[in-house]
Amino acid sequence: MKVLDQAAHRRFKDELYQEFARLGQALASPRRLEMLDLLAQRERSVEDLAQEMGLSIANASQHLRILAHARLVETRREGTRVYYRLAGDQVFRLWQALREVGEARLAEIGAIVQRYLGERDQLEAIDAAELLRRVEVGEVVLLDVRPFEEYRAGHIPGAQPVPPERLEQILQTLPRDREIVAYCRGPFCIFSDEAVARLRQAGFAAHRLRLGLPDWRVLGLPVAKGDTDDAP
Amino acid sequence: MKVLDQAAHRRFKDELYQEFARLGQALASPRRLEMLDLLAQRERSVEDLAQEMGLSIANASQHLRILAHARLVETRREGTRVYYRLAGDQVFRLWQALREVGEARLAEIGAIVQRYLGERDQLEAIDAAELLRRVEVGEVVLLDVRPFEEYRAGHIPGAQPVPPERLEQILQTLPRDREIVAYCRGPFCIFSDEAVARLRQAGFAAHRLRLGLPDWRVLGLPVAKGDTDDAP
DNA sequence: CACATATTCAAGTATTCTCTTGAACATGAA
DNA sequence: TTCATGTTCAAGAGAATACTTGAATATGTG
Description:
Two copies of one chain form a homodimer.
Chain A: H1 6-26, H2 30-39, E1 44-45, H3 46-53, H4 57-69, E2 73-78, E3 81-86, H5 89-105, H6 107-117, H7 128-137, E4 140-144, H8 148-153, E5 160-161, H9 167-170, E6 179-183, H10 191-201, E7 206-208, H11 213-218
Parallel strand pairs in A: 4-5, 4-6, 6-7
Antiparallel strand pairs in A: 1-3, 2-3
Helix pairs in contact in A: 3-4
Chain A binds a DNA duplex through residues 25, 28-29, 31, 45-47, 55-59, 61-63, 65, 77, 79-82.
């Protein structure tokens, strides 16, 4: 341990906070936050992400390079494609912390949700272990209403994959005497809102789980992978 | 719950992520992160902060206004002074999450610490409840080596206030047969490093508690307030 | 090898951010 | 009221950022 004079102490702090600020800078763009939110669901290639977000390839690549320099994402090359993924659960927790502060403190966020979505169903109170038990004994039908690729990359055990475009088809196959719970990417993802709205219209007792799959994962709850849960 | 067409869904996401990015932008400046770190210790006036950080008043005020617009800090007026404080523990947790990602993922941060400080003593493993018990029974002497005002605003119960400039004076009063533990603002604060270095040089068995007072607080551990612990 | 595809890099422009300076505003004291 | 103090606001210079376009690079295929 060296003892620092005042000037050195100032330089130390300047350099240190400068590094932390690199992370803040990476979080300072709406595009990059959306990328983090999408990458929390599953890894994706540059083109794939650009397409989903409506960005030019070069622009998407640029944003991803910035996230990579801040070490918030990592890459993997497969042939000619480069797949980006979150650099660990800690990064998701950072995005989660940001999301929670925003939700709790920025009235503007509540206002936007209200303006676009009106009142939303929220299944806040339910205990995760209790939900799992009910799914297991068949009291509750759990639907994963994200795009199928995201289901495949990880889902709540016992959940049934129901990508938005397939909801209509499976309406007939759902039991009318059981509670239906739908979840998707996270608190601000609307797939589950829309699924619940449609299900209720069709006469089902449907609710929305507020948590997304990544939130579920970082709670330490079990996550299943693969195409189907038939062979766990 | 309204159903959104694709364009409305895009607008919804754009507006939403834009708001979250305001928080990221507030975290994107090294100065503002340093401010959050200082405000996590105690509320401070603009001039006071500007002085400690070596900024012009106008510049400090400007940064603080940005933090306030992002609702990360709140203000209180007292006479002609305006005191800024963190807008709740959640905000500290956000800064903590950023700090942890940086610490874990940015090699540059480890390099800076290494370059300025060399190897640091770290009392990681100790259990907080165990520490409190030992302090209570007198096995451990706990020193709060932050500036006195920060001690007064909140400290670990049983800790003795030892602002850096007073360390020399109290050296004689410390028992030589007990372990001494010093803590300060947080993992990157060097007050405790310097205190420990001096104490060891003087022959004491001294260690550094990695946690700062705000970290301690958000763990839900007890925090004492006021000038002294004599009348708890 | 030439060719196609996915990604990255480089340069340019418009915008935004930081810090400075000096003026304006708010509060309390004389 | 006038004055002093602490804070905020407004304008401007210089640096950094976001997005576009087009070229360069890397990998796999015929």
